[in-house]
């Protein structure tokens, strides 16, 4: 990703001052207006259960999925693709690959986006996305660039989250299938039941030379174009609304949440889009509750991760081709970028275990609340005391 070009500093400062004050004041008022779906706030007890649920948290930064991803992942390298594929196959998610050949400054390259959907028949979805490629450098030692924050860690967080969510999603699916119906009062469970989660892992995010509109985000540009021209079948519920132009796959995306440059100690996450300010607030609230309950470790000298103001301008990244086609975006990216950005130092040593765990837990709370899922004690690790209680009172 890249920072978009900005005007000279004095001009920028003036624009910033004129712009920021009203924005800060406006944010709270507009949240409800743009929130078009119910959000199921979990109790502190639920949050505790969810934190203790399987899969367990990593004990070191190179354990688990992350350990498999902390290698150079430059284009046409299929080892990581095969690993990701094996994780989702095991979980039973629907897999779609979109291989294509793209023209780059170093010649034609084969790219493949990886797309995983829990329930491909669901009419709506939230997309959680990151890029799995690492930046290509022609010469040693730069060609050993790993990109731990960019974006091995975000991809690993997504894999861990998918493992965590799968049993909860299956449980709800089974309950609805068996006719047990809606459980929660004052909550639109039908809405969440028709919303699935889709994981999109983009290839070719990085530029081969300098970041330009044609040398960057190869996978995202291809996929946004492909989905725009893929129309929905006549049986799809969106077709009943007689939209013009006819609805395409892009219309089934409620929100696209893009993770990038995460996993190091310092994160600063801003909202960039008015219509998803409310999602930013929900993620911030998840982090606040986890901190309040002592369920995340906040490192010494660590500042808050979620900024209150909305930033204008944005950052060039995989969301752009979707944003330009009207998709609602929540861009979760550290700004300023990690100090190690695009250097060889962006390896395992750039990552922080407490930060990775904190992200993991934030994403669990956020996803469960968005999808209306309640953490189940069935997949929570039980302590001895709990087991004694279960046996004594059942
Ligand atoms: Zn990068």
TrEMBL record:
Q: Where is the Peptidase M28 domain?
A: 113-365
Per its UniProt record, what Pfam families does this chain match? Peptidase_M28 (PF04389)
Q: Does the keyword Transferase apply?
A: yes
**Which residues are the signal sequence here?**
1-25
Query: What EC number(s) does this enzyme carry?
Result: 3.4.-.-
Q: Per the UniProt entry, what are the Gene Ontology biological process annotations, in alphabetical order?
A: proteolysis
* Keywords recorded for this protein, A-Z: Acyltransferase, Hydrolase, Metal-binding, Protease, Signal, Transferase, Zinc
- Entry's Gene Ontology molecular function annotations: glutaminyl-peptide cyclotransferase activity; peptidase activity; zinc ion binding
From the record, give the transmembrane residue ranges: none
Q: Which family does it belong to?
A: Belongs to the peptidase M28 family.
PANTHER family from the UniProt entry: GLUTAMINYL-PEPTIDE CYCLOTRANSFERASE, GLUTAMINYL-PEPTIDE CYCLOTRANSFERASE-RELATED
* Name under which the protein is recorded: Peptide hydrolase
């Amino acid at each position: 990703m890249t920072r978009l070009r900005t005007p000279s500093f004095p001009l920028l400062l003036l624009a910033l001052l004129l712009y920021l004050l009203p924005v800060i004041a406006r944010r709270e008022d507009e949240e409800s207006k743009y929130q078009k779906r119910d959000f199921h706030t979990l109790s502190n007890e639920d949050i505790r259960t969810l934190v203790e649920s399987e899969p367990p948290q990593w004990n070191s930064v190179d354990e688990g999925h992350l350990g498999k991803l902390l290698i150079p992942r430059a284009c046409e390298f299929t080892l990581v693709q095969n690993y990701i594929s094996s994780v989702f196959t095991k979980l039973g998610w629907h897999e779609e690959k979109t291989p294509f050949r793209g023209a780059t400054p170093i010649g034609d390259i084969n790219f493949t986006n990886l797309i995983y959907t829990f329930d491909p028949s669901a009419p709506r979805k939230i997309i959680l996305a990151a890029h799995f490629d690492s930046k290509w450098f022609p010469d040693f030692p730069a060609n050993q660039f790993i990109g731990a924050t960019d974006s091995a860690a975000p991809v690993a967080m997504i894999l861990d989250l998918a493992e965590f969510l799968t049993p909860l999603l299956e449980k709800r699916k089974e309950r609805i299938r068996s006719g047990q119906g809606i459980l929660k009062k004052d909550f639109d469970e039908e809405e969440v039941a028709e919303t699935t989660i889709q994981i999109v892992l983009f290839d070719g995010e990085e530029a081969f030379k300098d970041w330009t509109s044609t040398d960057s985000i190869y996978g995202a540009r291809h996929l946004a174009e492909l989905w725009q021209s893929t129309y929905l079948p006549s049986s799809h519920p969106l077709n009943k609304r007689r939209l013009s132009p006819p609805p395409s796959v892009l219309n089934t995306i409620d929100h696209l949440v893009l993770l990038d440059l995460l996993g190091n100690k310092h994160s600063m996450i801003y909202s960039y889009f008015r219509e998803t300010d409310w999602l930013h607030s929900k993620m911030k609230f998840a982090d606040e509750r986890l901190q309040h309950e002592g369920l995340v470790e906040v490192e010494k000298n660590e500042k808050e991760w979620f900024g209150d103001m909305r930033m204008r301008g944005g950052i060039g990244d995989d969301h752009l081709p979707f944003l330009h086609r009207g998709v609602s975006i929540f861009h979760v990216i550290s700004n300023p970028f990690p100090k190690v950005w695009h250097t060889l130092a962006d390896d395992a040593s750039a990552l922080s275990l407490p930060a990775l765990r904190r992200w993991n837990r934030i994403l669990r709370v956020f996803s469960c609340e968005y999808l209306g899922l309640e953490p189940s004690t069935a997949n929570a690790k039980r302590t001895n005391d709990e087991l004694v209680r279960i046996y004594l009172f059942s």
